[in-house]
TrEMBL record:
One of its GO terms (molecular function) is lactaldehyde dehydrogenase (NAD+) activity. Its EC number is 1.2.1.97. The keyword Oxidoreductase applies. Belongs to the aldehyde dehydrogenase family. Residues 16-473 form the Aldehyde dehydrogenase domain. CDD domains: ALDH_y4uC. This is 3-sulfolactaldehyde dehydrogenase. Part of the sulfo-TAL (or sulfo-SFT) pathway, a D-sulfoquinovose degradation pathway that produces sulfolactate (SL). Catalyzes the oxidation of 3-sulfolactaldehyde (SLA) to sulfolactate (SL). It comes from the Bacteria. SUPFAM superfamilies: ALDH-like. Keywords: Oxidoreductase. It comes from Halobacillus mangrovi.
Amino acid sequence: MQTKVKTMKMLLGGEWTDAQDTFEVRNPQNNELIALVPQASKEDMLAAIEKADQTYEKMKSWPTHERIKVLNNVVDYMRQHKEEFAQIIASEGSKTITEARGEVKRATQTIQISAEEARRINGETINFDQNEGSEDRVGYYYRFPVGVIGAITPFNDPLNLVAHKIGPAIASGNAIVLKPASVTPLSALKLAEAFVEAGLPEGLLSVIPGPGKEIGDTLVTHSAIQMVTFTGGSEAGERITQIAGAKKVSMELGSNSPVIVLKDADMDDAVSSCVSGSFSAAGQNCIGVQRIYVEKEIYSTFLDSVVDLSSQLNVGDKMDESTDVGPMINEREAIRVENWVEQAVEEGAVIAVGGKRDGAYYSPTVLTNVPSHARISQEEIFGPVVIIESVDDLNEAVEKANNVNYGLQAGVFTNNIQKAFHTIKHMNVGGIMINDSSDYRIDEMPFGGTKNSGIGREGVRYAIESMTEQKVVCFKLKM
């Protein structure tokens, strides 16, 4: 049965609007057309920014209790329509229906946390009398919203990563203009619908889909945009920093996440966690496991176990609840992963399992003997491929784990507390998971990385901090 093609509108300044042109959204599993979406122009983006700026100026004193009410209403809407959200995620992206339902749950929690954190945007008193001659002064600082925020989101978590931009922005009293990934705009538009139904004042939110080069550059460079928050690839992130100008920038970029497995680890736990962390969402996950360093005493056993479990994963129909791994976002990306693997093999790598492509599908793949200089060792594969390597000891593992220009998250499996703290101290990453793979996150924790993995931190509370400024107030008293 052919899916009915939906004709969408974009949310521009609080109004559902068409554009002169449209673009297609297709299901990567079968290339079936599922929606026609407005292809916004530069003029559309300019109109959205202008409306956001005007609305923010009128609503600088928007009460906290009203922000909380709107966000709680969004949570209620998401819970009432959770299966519809999941179906959208699974149809436009790579996730299986089971993974999509998990993302809806997390995104709902992200908005709920935003409502809770809205009431905790506090300042503190300052002891001005610590300075000689200031005994007659008292004061404090408080946080105020930056103004209009420009947000750009990727395809791999098309709902929750959007929630991580919009939720904190609204909680802290900002206006926000969001450009979603062109391959997965439907989830963002559905979340925008939730905010409209929740009673968000018109103009505080716009979701403007379209080509990044045209409308993305307009969003990033506009003088009314006081902050840019971006999640995506490192190259795009570097370009944004070059053109954004004098404004705040927060970025969650790529990674090449390492996991260390020591000989005293719980083998079954390490194997299952690493396989899940490597291949969930078809490996299109910024904290997915890409490199595993295993102490030589257990290397063969660990490798055999990972290969065995990986070969049992069910690759197939995203909408089938028994499916473990769906397609990549499109065939072009699957071909790219195929080429990277073939290049590694030419340089000496061995395919222990997988290495096969069928359209947009790429089978879960385990590589060994990969040279450290190979592209797949140094860059972010963003696909269902993991490298497993033997090491002599923890020091060698840490050294190799750090030997890339990324540092988002890492994992280490050990039952030795001293070795755990050694990795905590010496791993150059933004987060380290002990007895978990790198692929673990809750939406309230500070999330971000070092080196080429980003600037600043997400996680609702920490995003709110970056989306607000501190204002100092000082009273001189007559005493």
